[in-house]
Structures are given as structure tokens and as C-alpha cells.
Amino acid sequence: MLKIKKTDLSALFAKIAESNELYLPVKTAGKTNFAAWTPAAEVDLDTLKTVKSPKDAFFPQSEGLYSCDREDGKIKITAGKLQDAPFVVFGIRACDVRGIEVLDRVFLSEPVDTYYAARREHGILVSYACGMPETSCFCKVFGIDAAAPAGDVVIWTVGEELYWEAKTEKGQKLTALVADLLTDADGAVVEAEQEKIRAIIDRLPNSDLSLEGWGAEAAKTRFDSPVWEQLYKPCLACGTCTFVCPTCQCYDIKDYDTGNGVKRYRCWDSCMYSDFTMMAHGNNRTSQLQRFRQRFLHKLAYFPANNEGVFSCVGCGRCVDKCPSKLNIVKVIKAFGKEDA
Amino acid sequence: MQRLIDRAKELLGSGEVARVLGWRKGENSWDVEPAFFASAEELDGFVYDGFCGANLSKYMIEASKLEGKTLVFLKPCDTYSFNQLIKEHRVDRDKAYIVGVGCKGKLKIENIPAKGILSVEGAGYPDAAEMLTVKTLYGDVQVAYKDAMLERCHVCKGKDHMIFDEQIGESADTLDGDRFAQVAAIEAMSPEEKFAFFQAELSKCIRCNACRNVCPACSCRKCVFDSNKFDSAQKANTTSFEEKMFHIIRAFHVAGRCTDCGECSRVCPQGIPLHLFNRKFIKDINELYGEFQAGADIDARGPLTDFRQDDCEPSIVGKRG
């Protein structure tokens, strides 16, 4: 176990940034999101949840795939650049690390998404234990331990110090890079902090949420339930829940007319949108009830059906905090729980 | 609150209305959701308190297509939106039974500067407390009701309902700010400062469309930003210009029709003060065409859809900057 004073963190960030791109929580105009570090950036390690999850670091909201340009009567095709340099995502929470593991199941299974795979190969995760979990958190339900996140390096903040422990080979390499700034530390301090965190998590109102009845079978048993009719009505059909979610992975591919060709890019899509999965014959989900149901059954039934029972919700609670109509996955799970009882 | 439930049960029972549009209790005291109620039993979940900020007017577009009347609870500021929707032929007045409810200011949970909130006491209606007692995982705190209010309540348009069939409950004075103060402050900025301000705010936009979808003035059946028939259809900002363009186009589209209900800023997950765009238009309209409040009067002609000989010339825009 190693440590560094919080007051020395700027030096740590500068050292990492010398040879890596560095993404970390930065406050801009009052809100904290993951962004590239600069000496002028207002780094915010106190906010528990960034508005957007850090999934952008591996699966950006918008990214160029390739471009076609007219050149001397021919069409020149230029492939998008793959990530080829190391980068560090610093301060990612336990739930968001699980979120990336969920994305891995989608993008690293055949056919492998080369853009995503290149970022995963070069990305280093410095995960950050949650000192002050929030009411909307329910990661424990999915077997995630916010006191001991997965990642290449794990950090904890206790008092005025930040504790650092490398967990993987990538993590050890990063640790070697900043070794001069770290000093030896007493692991017992971190163990005490972990106990404190776990005690708070046990007191969270949704830590004991029951997932009974969800999983592959819910696709059949809950698809036609009248409960959806009650649940979906306040839904505004906006994309907030899908865009703040660490596991939503649907995207659209579009062409941008450059005047001399096209730039083909992909961008996040949302199952809440009316043209989601629009095909030549029309749309296979024509009502908001169907779109709403799709999102929750994807997380709680279809994904586990195809991925050994793993849910694609990680309990980060962002949709709980951010839905304009105060709808969310916890309400859905509880509504079906009541129906069963 | 009980008076609202009793009246709703009465009107449902007599068959005068087929359903009730109000607010439903959530899992926590603050996560109240808009909801339709079809029976007296369902109304047990009804709530009306400081967390009922959602403006229900826009839900009446869909409710107008249903059989029978819908009882809708509207706060004073919500009635401006409803009037504007009548004017634009988007809701059917005859399909609505409007109960104008009193309002003592609405709250935003994000405005309570405490972590791990478990409950908020004192947000009830009509007995709202001056100080809210907030129980959290990390100890209890007291927060002034006023400090947790939505921005729009600090510049409240008043206690009067612009349209109603009956009224229930008293309202409180919550006005303690100048509606146009921040717009004036931005007008006084240099072009560079203005650009930096809006760039910082709008670069946070995630294009979730919550502002558009909640907006009672955005009631097009198919938004130009959703239509695949145009290049304007976007789900992401492809350039830094586009992230501004969406909001600016939207502000232009609702100019003269926006009642300043504040829903856009209430729902933005990134806390972008979107109402400032609309207020700039409202301020300009007031200055160029005379005081105008959209939704105050169904019969008034909109300043941008009315032509008069003494209207200002377009060149004024160039001169004013």
C-alpha cells in the first residue's frame, strides 16, 4: 500500500500526463464530468457521481469511423485512427468499472469492435473507492463492492491522504512511473475505511433490492404485464437515462455531408427515441410503452439471457438521480416486486 | 392536499371526469412523478407538495385525445402554458377540468447541499415549513425552504391562475429576485465573455433532449432534429458549432410563445441555465414591442405573429447587437 498527500495530487497528475492522456472528473460550469486533464482544470474528486459515466473514454458519444473524399475523379477512403497510445482514466467508481466489463461483453465478443478494443488495450483504470455513498446507489445488489473496486490501480481517500494500490501489471507500470511521488503506507488505514464504507452501504435504502423474477425468464413472464402501462406514462421519451447510463451501448451510424464526400460516424442512440432501430419497413416499436419496456427488459432480462445471467444494470443510480419525470429502474424493479406479492 | 384528493374522488365518482392528472408519491419524499389516476383507490398514491414542480400542461395534449374529461391540477405558472397550448390548438379546453392549485414555491432536491439524503421534512402543502429538516446518512441538516426552491420560483409570475374551473388552496409570495437580472448581466458582457460563458455551459449538453421533450412550447409531432428526412437530425453533437445550434434554434422556435415556465432548466441533467436564452427573447420582445406575457391571455395576438405599422424595423437588431 502506498499513499500521497492530496495537496500533491497536481504533481501526480502532471507526471502521469507527461506520457499518458489523462481523464478524470473535472468541474465545468458547476457540473462534474470526466474530461482531459490540463493544469488549469478544476479536478473534483469529492463528487461521487459524474453526470455522465466515464464510458466515453472507451465508447465516445460520437466518433468518426472513416471518411470518403472525392479526389481526382476517384473516391479516397480514410480509416479512422485507432487508439495507439496509453491513457489513464483516474477516479472511476466501482459501478462504472463493472459498466465497462458489461461493455466488454458487447464490444469484445465476435465480431470484435476494433475501435473499442484498441481503447481497452491502451486504457489504464485507476478506480476510486466510494467514501460517501449516496442514497440512490444500489451497486451491492449486483455484487459490486464500492470499498474494493476492480481496476488496474485502486485508490482510497482518507482524511488528507490518497492511498494507492496497484492490482494488475498495467497498474504496476503506472505505479513505477509515479513511484517518486508515493510513499509507503499502512494498509490498516484502508481496511478501516473499507469497513466504514461497507457499513454505510448496508444502510442504503436500496441495498437489499430483490431481483427475484428478473433474468432470462422475465422476457416471457413480464413482457405482457399490465404494470408497464402504469409505469411508462410519465416518460418524456428523452434520452437522459440512456445517456448517463454506464452500460447503455446502442449506437447509430450516420453520414455527415462534408460537401466533398462524407464522414461516417457513430453516435450513441437511445431506445427512448422514436427513430431507434428504424428500418426500411418502419419501426418495430411504435409506442413509448414498447420503448420504455425495451430499456428495462434489456437490462434485466435480454442481457442476462445472453450473458450467463449477468445484468446490464450496475446500480450506479444515475437514472434515479437524473430522470426528469423521476422514473427509474429501481421503481420498475419494485413495482414488479409488489405485483408478485 | 387532502382537499385535492377529496375533490378528485368526488369528480371521478360523479363521472364528470374520466381520469385525474396529478402527481404520484415516489420511493423517496422528493421523487414525485406526474401520473394519471383512473380510480379512487389509485388516488391513494396522489401527492401534492413542494416536490410537485412538474408542469402537467403538456400531458394534456395526449389526454385531449382520450374519451371524456381529464381533471388536471395546474399551479399558477402552469396555467400560462395551458393557455398557450389552447392558443396553438394543441389541447382541447372542453376535455379539461382545471383545478387551479395553490403553490408555496417548488423545490429542487439538487438545491439541498447535503449528501446521502434519506428524507426531507417540511415540504408539505399547505403547511410548508420555513426550514426544511433533511435527514441524511451523514447527519441531519436544516435548509431554508427558499434556498432549495427552483430558480423560477424566485422570479414567480404571481399567485393568479390564468385559467381554471375551480381553485383550491392558497399561494405564497416567493418572488425575491429580478427576472431579467442575469440576462442584463450577460448583455453587459464583452463578446468574448459571452462566448466563454455560453461555451462552458453548452459544452456540457449531452443531447438527451429532455429540455425539448418537457417544453410545453415544443409540441411538434415530429421535431426537425428527429426527422431522418433532413440533415438536421442529430443524436450527437458532431461539431462544437452544433452543440450551440440545437439550443439556439430551439430558443428561436419558441420565441414569443415561451411562457418562461422554467421546465427546461428544471430537467437539464447538466444544469444548463437554458431559460436564459428564452428570457433574452422575452426581454427583447418587451423592449421592442411592449410588455408581453405568453399564455396570460388566449385572445392576445403574439408579438411575433402580429404586424403593426409602428413595429420596429429589422435593422434594429444590427444596431442593438
Structure commentary:
- The complex is a heterodimer of chains A (341) and B (321).
- Chain A has 341 residues and is α+β, with helices and mostly antiparallel strands.
- Chain A has two domains: 2-69 and 81-203, no CATH class; 218-249 and 271-340, no CATH class.
- Helices cover 33% and strands 22% of the residues of chain A.
- Chain A contains eleven helices and twelve strands.
- Chain A has helices at 9-19, 94-107, 114-122, 169-177, 187-203, 218-221, 227-232, 240-244, 288-306, 318-322, 329-340, and strands at 2-5, 21-28, 31-36, 62-71, 74-79, 87-92, 123-128, 153-158, 161-166, 183-184, 251-257, 261-268.
- An eight-stranded mixed beta sheet of chain A has the order 3-2-6-7-8-9-1-10, with helices on both faces.
- In chain A, strand 11 (251-257) and strand 12 form a beta hairpin.
- In chain A, 42% of the residues are buried.
- Chain B has 321 residues and is an alpha/beta fold.
- Chain B has two domains: 2-110 and 155-168, no CATH class; 181-320, no CATH class.
- Chain B contains eleven helices and eight strands.
- Chain B has a five-stranded mixed beta sheet.
- The mean pLDDT of chain B is 93.
Range of helix content of chain B: 25-40%
Point out poorly predicted stretches of chain B. Answer: none
Q: How many strands, which pairing sense, and closed or not: the largest β-sheet of chain B?
A: 5 strands, mixed
The coarse overall form of chain B would be: globular
- Can you summarize the main beta sheet of chain A? 8 strands, mixed
In spatial order, strands of the major sheet of chain A run 3-2-6-7-8-9-1-10
| Secondary-structure content class of chain B | alpha/beta
| Average pLDDT of chain B | 93
β-strand amount of chain B: 5-15%
Quaternary structure state of the chains depicted: heterodimer
